[in-house]
Amino acid sequence: xxxxxxxxxxxxxxxxxxxxxxxxxxxxxxxxxxxxxxxxxxxxxxxxxxxxxxxxxxxxxxxxxxxxxxxxxxxxxxxxxxxxxxxxxxxxxxxxxxxxxxxxxxxxxxxxxxxxxxxxxxxxxxxxxxxxxxxxxxxxxxxxxxxxxxxxxxxxxxxxxxxxxxxxxxxxxxxxxxxxxxxxxxxxxxxxxxxxxxxxxxxxxxxxxxxxxxxxxxxxxxxxxxxxxxxxxxxxxxxxxxxxxxxxxxxxxxxxxxxxxxxxxxxxxxxxxxxxxxxxxxxxxxxxxxxxxxxxxxxxxxxxxxxxxxxxxxxxxxxxxxxxxxxxxxxxxxxxxxxxxxxxxxxxxxxxxxxxxxxxxxxxxxxxxxxxxxxxxxxxxxxxxxxxxxxxxxxxxxxxxxxxxxxxxxxxxxxxxxxxxxxxxxxxxxxxxxxxxxxxxxxxxxxxxxxxxxxxxxxxxxxxxxxxxxxxxxxxx
Length: 477
Known about the structure:
The protein is mainly beta. Helices cover about 10% and strands about 30% of the residues. It is built from six helices and 28 strands. It is globular and about 70 Å long.
């Protein structure tokens, strides 16, 4: 078993190290804590060195495997965006893809040891369920034990940007009831919270949400708010959730001098899923694995297919049942949608003979009536281009010849159903009624006007001979 670690902060490392023996769940791995002994950022041991796990495609399936591997009864919540502070070690694992039956995180598919494009703020974490009867440390009761709450409407909150080169950027400062100005803890700060700030200040939309001291840090203005969590459609930061601030102090658990920073702009893209195209094109196909070798290199099939490839000498003649469909995303915003990775970081894919600029642009998931994920599609990465545009709109972006990638205003990026990986492998799924969810920009890595139209939620009827997708609606990923 490969060791796995949950760490929350390095400030109390010496104190925590003294408790490792007491909180050791088996001989292979331990669980470090500061705020709760059941939560933290995930780290794994490879080549005798600890490394972090990136939050790209990090979801409850992977989180449950981690908690069970650590000896806990189950998962309570997964965390993204360095919720417990930024990653302090190199990233060992990125784009984890687990089916749910794996016993260890390393049994899942991922890009390869050390292969990643992640920033320290993209650390993945978990909050596990407490073991029955397990004692926790009563002495450590920081604000993470407190529930999050909104600031009461009777409180008067003011907000401003400071330290920026231009008026629409800088560190965020807030004050309550005319008191002293303070900054916001950077842990978990994302575009969702940044969008609320820009909207409240009348500066448009968030182009970037940063965790940095570039515009001045906590040494200039002490941290006043922590644990800030917004849905994204609030009109004021006061409506978002925060940890208790009534004691007059707030603790940041990552880089102590880093604070929440935003860059606002009046222009932003806005992607909309074309669910009519999904309903129109959804169908079943039984495909021999001999025709899926390129797709299997990109982890586009269920894990059972790889077991067959390993154990059956005639695996090439085995068929997989695929739910195929066309996915189209229209940019209805007022500026182009561009990948967040620099062009120098794009990856060449030999199978497709072009560069991919985004690892997680779309996700395809199927849920049963109880809300359990029973199947998921997995594309290793994506190439973004103007597949079709409204009349009079010229195409600007093209995947061929290392061209610039993106989606222009009033243009759509269309992934036709006959393309590799444009499917969900449902070979092991029973017939019945399900929910199909197609989401674009699901991890909110690129700024948009709104994320409420980024997912199509549809009814899926799956029978032995056909599949029907209908009653689709637009929702948030």
